[in-house]
Fold these 4 entries.
Entry 1:
Amino acid sequence: MKKVMVLNCSPRKNFNTAKMLKEAQRGAESVGADVEYINLYEYNFKGCMSCFACQRKGSTTDGICAIRDDLKPILEKCMSADAIFIGTPVYFSYPTGVFRCFIERLMFPNHTYMIDREHGGLKRRMDKIIPTGVVFTMNCPEEMAKNINYPTILEENVKGLNHIMGYAESVYAYDTTQFADFSKYNCDLFDPNHKKEVQENQFPKDLEAAFELGKKLAQM
């Protein structure tokens, strides 16, 4: 049975990012995968501490960050998984800090400073491929997001994961709604009726895309 890890890097456990990830989970489960879902905001950890234990000659870290905190057992599960899904909202053009802290700790122990003289670029440390899906959600409309280069910024994270993990693919949910009840908040930037329309007509399509990505990566 395939083992799949799903990691929510949003502080909200049941909103847009979580809904997308749970659809990815359903997609993976639909093809028989065993899925573990984790809310990373519940754990106490930091990003890479630049100790370089993983890069030292003779290192025995074996692709797992040497820091012993709440994240270490999760990283161990990820490195033994058959696929990984990571989800984050976009805050001020970037993924959450928890997302960045997690992928720093996931990626750097599997990064090398060694040149691949046969194929060019840097050598991959890992022999296996762990297909990785990344879910980005944002209240910014798609056209605006593209005009301010959101995909360019966000896809740099996906490129890094693609190199380290061997394969990475992303799915986006644009123009999401932030509030269940707009009347409770100081916000006249967005039209609640438009947000409701997007939530009813577009977001189900985004959920379907997440489901299909979950299914695809679990089968790879």
Note: The helical segments are 16-30, 72-79, 97-107, 142-147, 150-165, 192-201, 203-219.
Entry 2:
Amino acid sequence: MYTRKIKENLDCGILVAAKVFGGKWKLCVLDAINRGFVRPADICRYIDEASPRVIEMQLAELLFFGVIEKCAEDVYPKKTEYKLTALGESILPLLTQMDKWGTAHSEFIKERQRELEESQSV
């Protein structure tokens, strides 16, 4: 089993939030669930840039930290759905603000990204 060499500082709120919500797709997964995409296959279709395995891993981490809960029906074929817990719903106002910020600044960021890619290709 892996043992950390440097102790995590979980007294810092930013580090706690990064631990729970950090990762390339976790916030997108939460957004998908909030928008009604509750089945794993639906979430994968909504976030088509990420592989199903990655989505599965992100769902498992969010489940572990209590941000989402898994509802599985005992039928064949098995039907699994995810929903936000109260903890998960508490991040939604921040997600909304992040979305607004990203939308407002997307053109500037896209331009900077193009410049960066052009400078690296030379």
Note: The chain has a mean pLDDT of 92.
Entry 3:
Amino acid sequence: MNYSSLITKLNISIFLIWLFHVSGIIGIIYTNTSWFIGQTPINLILSFSLLLINTKLSKSTLLLFIGCFTVGMIAEIVGVRYGFLFGDYTYGSVLGIKLMEVPLLMGFMWCTLVFITGSIAQFFTDSFWIKCFVGVGLMLTLDLVMEPIAPVLDFWTFADGVASFHNYVGWALVAFPLQITFHKFKIEIEGAYPLNLYILQFLFFTILLIKINSIGI
């Protein structure tokens, strides 16, 4: 076997996100919960950076990264300050430095989610509009498992304790034009990185949610 062929940018990226996510799950559940939760920004920045490395860069790609960050941050700022886009919610301290009460990491999270779900959607169909709807659906599915665990991890908390239907409508309204732009620009991401990151994000929040519902963290 040619082992050098296994040491590629893509394989190293996939190995690192699996290492960090699995370590985070184990650490939060079985060891120093608060310390591992506090390292969340590192995990998010690493995931975004590796996504950038594995994306074919062009003027359109960079414009979309900037657009996703900007639209995501504006939507979150409007949501936090006025409550009509996603509901009445506030951010905790875990996600780091804030701009107008919203962690800057949320802008990067919007970029990551749009890019990985858009890339996965490309494998389902060649239909432009179906790809856009599938991308939005994948984003909403991930949000469904994120919302119940977010307050426990001090990511964000809704005033009523749980995210309402209002929140998911807001997500869809923001996500849909970003998905349209992603597919219009024909963004190319190398290999299976988007699928691996999506699976890991889904497993991370689902496993923690199951753990909390059984014995708690």
Note: The mean pLDDT is 91.
Entry 4:
Amino acid sequence: MRQLIPAAAPRALLAALSLPIALAGCSSLRVPKAAAVHERRIDLQRAADALIALERPLAAEIAASRSLWPLIDHGLLRRLHRSRRPRVELRSDATLARRLDAAEGAARQLPAQLLAGAEELTGPASGLAGLYALASGLATHSLEALAAAERVGPSAGEATASYLRGNVNMYVADLYDAHFDLSYIGKALRDAYRRMGGQRTFGARLSAAEVARIARFYSPANTRLRPHPWQSFASA
């Protein structure tokens, strides 16, 4: 948890805390531009390698979620809450439960981060890592929450059951957004590769054909869920 420094803290303490920040800023200013660009290219290559390595577990999660998606849409029950406001709930059946289990299991196999030390990536690679982390987190959380809403029984308590079932629309939206975020990774990689010199600069370490193949995997056609859920929510 972040600790706040009281306004009356001694100046010596504030100076000691600010010294490492100042030194870090000075040292970053001394990094030659060529060295910084080189580091960003290496990081982009590392990110591309990690994206390739994640294609198999992601393909399993995408396939499971796509198999589940029509059942979620058809299983959404629109009803009036006690407040007379519409609420979307999940109408369960055996097929939905089975496919939810499969999708939840596939999502749990996804690493939380693109690669070890992802927080230290520089340049465009940092953005790619952020997109992946957001997508992975949303997919895992939303599928776990949907599964919990589908499984919840009387023993969980009325408040818990009401909360899980009453927020189904949010879980469905998060699952959609997870795959939407994945679909941007391909374009972001392709644009960064081109800006940083492309085939002429990276050569065999990261070829244009390899980048194009990665971009096809992380594309709207391959990752997004259809139809969009907002129309279903609006009709609740």
Note: Residues 132 and 209 are 22 Å apart (CA to CA).
